[in-house]
## 1
Amino acid sequence: MAQPGQQQDPPGTEAELTPKADHGEQSYRGSGKLSGKVAVITGADSGIGKAVAIAYAREGADVLISYLSEHEDAKDTASWVEEAGRKAVLVSGDLSDPAHCREIIAKAVEEFGRVDVLVSNAAFQMTHETVEEIPDEEWDHTIATNLSAFFHLTKAVLPHMGPGGSIIGSSSVNSDMPKPTLMPYAATKAGIANMAASLAQMLAERGIRVNSVAPGPIWTPLIPSTMPAETVASFGEQVPMGRPGQPAELAPVYVLLASDDGSYVSGARIAVTGGNPIL
């Protein structure tokens, strides 16, 4: 069933999303795959990041929830983490600032002593029909938020991540099949996949695995806050499954990549696209 056409102001909130997204609140069942681990997840107030935080907590991990300014959404994520019996730490701020990326890792180390899993997931996008209408500042902000933050978070976390650690970047089907109206976003998502592949080779000798996940169209507040209402109304219809995915449908992949079950998976880009292949 198609979602109604709708728009929000960026970055968007769960409260205004119709229909509500499924983050696995009522469905995800953990089995101890991340017992005792510490995870940092950016963009964990809503969408994929929220689903991953809930799943990680139910698998036994403590979670630092990084978000921009969506305080109520982030508090809700924290409540689900705590309901699972794990510790939640909230950190708000702008990931386009390298200093804030370092502050996130420093806070995690202060609270937990180390980081076992880093999920660089937060992203910015905006729809534009022509290159000329993309403001220079928006291009720079998109690169800084989506791609440079992945670099700064990774660089900051490495001194605090030991063998068995896992770094996961949220890429996109746009890394392989770029939508022209999302050009800056698509470029960053290709960069994330490429960077993860490089890091996997660089960090293997330290026992740290690095992978990326390439979602297709996923129903999150990012969609109505960055796309025209008519595009939102048909969002997801173009994939073979004919619908957008729910954040909960991504969480098991992120669990696999974070857990010891994925011990030989590194340098991968895993597609969760509703049937659209990636090369």
## 2
Amino acid sequence: MPDTSVERIFRSGIIAIMRRTEASLAIETVEALVRGGIDIVEVTLNSPGADDMLRALSAHFGDRVLIGAGTVMSAESAKAAIAAGARFIVSPHTDRGVIEASRRAGLPVFPGGFTPTEIVHAWKLGATAVKVFPIGSVGARYLRDVLAPLTEIPLVPTGGITLDNAAEMIRFGARALGLGSDLVSAKTVTDRQFDTIAERARRFVEEVAKGRSE
């Protein structure tokens, strides 16, 4: 039986975040990520032409890449992103309407939370997993400490994940990592450094595997 979307995300362990990516270079960017071993991609809705990008990427890659929408701030934005082809929804915050719209569409939804209270609140509202954001300022040990009492809640740390801390995040309990500018920066895309993106992707895949084996 094929993976569901959430199983696929957790199995991969990496969500590549395309924030303010040049729309005309989006397909080449995702091709580079795929060459590096990453097939889960989040297009943030604060990127120019995000809905058109979602449509183009979904049409081009089909099931080869799981395309989702990030920085989803409202139920209306969630519905528009889903109509454009998003297959998972990510928010920096917890919004009941976003969660309900995603669940009605049968899609995984990862609302943002930071404190244990926020994480539990998001989970009780129906989150598939909770995006712990921003994690960079507190580090992987915070994730470990939060998971000690909240063992049943899948967490996806985002914001400040680097090659230096990715393996530790996985080792301390992250189900997947949201990878932004350290993997796909707007400048790297604009400069068409697709080989660099592919190589960074490969290195992050290696770090996730390392974290799972430790």
